[in-house]
């Protein structure tokens, strides 16, 4: 079951430029930064009333974020829904005819389990499911 929107992923060219913008223009506080080597991104998290903003900066031209920025420019990259059962969520989406990017969840930023649905089958919105790993007590 989806319990909330967990975060919005926002593709940016530079965290060093984007983080101060969110801090100064919106008055949000950066909760921390993390590099996710497997995804070739650096992330910075903000809290906006329980929904996080996840700024994503590519660390390599091979990163999907670099390709996204090259194709579409900076901007909203994905919407992440928190779920209490990521496996069941994937099964439901797949059963509804949605193409999955990941058949199995993998470990994303902040130690969460994540999996993505293909934007071509979700009306152009890259959709992420995320779940707190059993036993984890992440603040993100
Ligand atoms: Zn995400």
Summarize the structure in words.
The chain contains 3 helices and 8 strands, in the order βαβββαβαβββ. The protein is of the alpha+beta class and 140 residues long. The protein has one domain: 2,3-Dihydroxybiphenyl 1,2-Dioxygenase, domain 1, CATH 3.10.180. The protein has an 8-stranded mixed sheet. The longest helix is centred in the first third of the chain and has 12 residues.
Number of helices: 3
- What is the annotated CATH architecture? Roll
Overall spatial form? globular
Biggest sheet: strands, sense, closure?
8 strands, mixed
Rg for CA atoms = 15 Å
Features:
140 residues; 8-stranded mixed β-sheet; 8 strands; 2,3-Dihydroxybiphenyl 1,2-Dioxygenase, domain 1; binds zinc ion; alpha+beta; single chain
Itemize the secondary structure elements and their pairings.
Elements: E1 2-11, H1 15-26, E2 30-36, E3 41-48, E4 51-58, H2 64-72, E5 75-83, H3 86-95, E6 106-107, E7 112-117, E8 127-132
Parallel strand pairs: 1-4, 5-8
Antiparallel strand pairs: 1-5, 2-3, 3-4, 6-7, 7-8
The structure holds zinc ion.
What's the gist of this structure?
This protein is α+β, with helices and mostly antiparallel strands and 140 residues long. It is built from three helices and eight strands; from the N terminus they run βαβββαβαβββ. It has a single domain, classed as Roll (2,3-Dihydroxybiphenyl 1,2-Dioxygenase, domain 1), CATH 3.10.180.
């Amino acid at each position: 079951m989806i319990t909330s929107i967990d975060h919005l992923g926002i593709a940016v060219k530079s965290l060093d430029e984007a983080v101060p913008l969110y801090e100064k223009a919106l008055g949000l506080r950066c909760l921390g930064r993390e590099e996710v080597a497997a995804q070739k991104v650096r992330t910075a998290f903000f809290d906006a009333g329980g929904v996080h903003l996840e700024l994503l900066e590519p660390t390599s031209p091979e990163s999907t974020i670099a390709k996204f920025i090259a194709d579409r420019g900076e901007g909203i990259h994905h919407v992440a829904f928190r779920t209490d059962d990521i496996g069941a969520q994937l099964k439901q989406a797949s059963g509804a005819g949605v193409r999955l990017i990941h058949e199995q969840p993998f470990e994303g930023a902040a130690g969460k389990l994540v999996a993505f649905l293909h934007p071509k089958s979700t009306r152009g919105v890259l959709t992420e499911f995320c779940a707190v790993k059993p036993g984890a007590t992440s603040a993100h």
